[in-house]
DNA sequence: CATGAATGAGTATTCATTCAT
DNA sequence: GATGAATGAATACTCATTCAT
């Protein structure tokens, strides 16, 4: 995307590589893999092959398969923060902002589905034992607050909208796309406009 | 492939084993296992140990791990048909029927979550290649029609409600139960009652 | 060696195998392997191939490579207890008993060398951390006491004799057999007979 | 194989690096590593980390892990030649020289043990195939002749003494130091003094 | 000279599956 | 029908080694 020089000279002239940059580049290619195969079924060899590197290289950048997965979750979770805000711009009326929101999700349906699938795998992975790492939970809150800021609605309503969108995406995944996003969007739209009329926001 | 008698008579006639019955009993114990571990991470040995049988026995009743999983999906998919109808009984007014529906899902949240998780794993498993087996898709339609029959609402609205419930359950899974089912139920309730008033059903 | 029936019938007629017996049979073939290759260089695949079984079978009987090694140490350590006593029989005079002892070690030089090598690898394996498992230490004491009982000499003298024999075997290992066991035996013999004359036993 | 200058002049003349010197410095730090981990279990990365250099540097000075090990054996084998002679000085009577010898080994027990362990690993490494390189065999002969020169005893007796000391060190390794070096030294001392009295040297 | 990123064959271990009993 | 011993391909991960910088 943006230009970044890879060249630098240190005293003994070893091969110069920006570790974190490479790591990020690798992570960015992993979302689809994990989402399509599932944590348990995706092998390090498959990943290596898909990323055109050796397994050794994978382990050079990540401690383990689990570590790679965790970093992926963190990566995609943070990635969104910028994007969500974009939906805010250039929409004046409430109706326009609702449209912007729906469009945001419709345009990114695939990415959003992958994200939810990863989150579910991640949640499963942790088991009930670990309560520690927030990860996806945080991301959900981010989405929620983005919706609240955009539409100026109550937290519980925003959460409901998010759940509905989540559910739609998943339903389309399961039923092979038979659910119509266009039609369902209209329903969500009507609901939100109705809420505004009632002043119950 | 080959013919297999379901009834077996020992010389002493006491022990009659019904192949399908045993199979069903085994399947019924697998939902949690697959849902908690994921298809890729669950091993036949874990299953065998959890069901208190040997792996040999597992392979006596199922051709492969994949076959077992498919049969499980079929099993849980058909299992619901009976249950859904129960929600219909003893609810006269529209409001009561809405309550019955919400209660149905809230009471069975765990089961419903497991079911959705399995469906997602199943969908993933099949890949884009196989278009053949409907499975979960059918089940979703069943739920949809159950809701239509119960509430007398339009198909797209029923689908929306289902998606919202789906989404809620998953959101609660991901955020560790932070989303309140009670509060969200009220929103769904308000939405449905509002729809009825408008006569837009 | 001795006859042992493998046949038995349990209620469901599964394949009947004496787990421990097979395990022992496998262990008995591992001494040379570990001794010749060294713990770190010997692979499970090499072991499996040498024992004519699959790696899976190896792991059916042993938890890990380390577990296999530990059990091997225990196995060879206990194996000796019977053999040491044999050297006692049919030797009346002190001189005869000394000869019996020397002959015992000379005849079993290879086995004894392997044993010492394994013990050293085992000691190294444990690191300084674990003080727990006696293993080889016990075996050394057994040898010591066997020598004491046989020759009626003091503990420290017995220990000295054992050390000398240990050292000889290792020296022959390192120098490719250039040290003569016959000549050295005479020295040990002279030393022991000298000790007896002095009555310093 | 190819010629390699040991001296290197940078353009600014300050940094003169002697290839062999650096190599020796590296080797001198490897004895403990190989002895504690064992050839098969010690990795080039562990070595590099322990020596505070990169693996690349290691391969700059040594062709391979095996080459490094061989050079280490050669290094420690030659290192001793000087030290052994030190034990000779300032000991006039036979008794004093015996004490000097015993003290020599007792003071250097750890180093001597490491050395024997390395020799055994080296012997194992070569397998029966290679008869070529003498290495440790030579070193044993050196020790032997040093003892002969020091005490003026017969070759086979010197060899016996060496074997006993070897055996003692190893026995202490295996039994965790339970064997007393002091007590055992007295036995060796008595034996040697007895030999002298008999004039059987 | 020195570095450490990259490689891919190799390591310990696991897994779905088979089959003799 | 039921068992669990046996298999060997596959898995996560490591290692000696190379090489661009």
UniProtKB/TrEMBL annotation, chains A, B, C, D:
Transmembrane segments: none
Alphabetical list of InterPro entries matching this protein: DNA-bd_HTH_TetR-type_CS, Homeodomain-like_sf, HTH_TetR
Keywords: DNA-binding, Transcription, Transcription regulation
Residues in the DNA-binding region annotation: 43-62
Domain of life: Bacteria
Gene3D superfamilies listed in its UniProt record: Tetracycline Repressor, domain 2
Molecular functions (GO terms): DNA binding
Residue intervals of the HTH tetR-type domain: 20-80
Keyword flag Lyase: no
Designated name of the protein: DNA-binding transcriptional regulator, AcrR family
Native source organism of the sequence: Marininema halotolerans
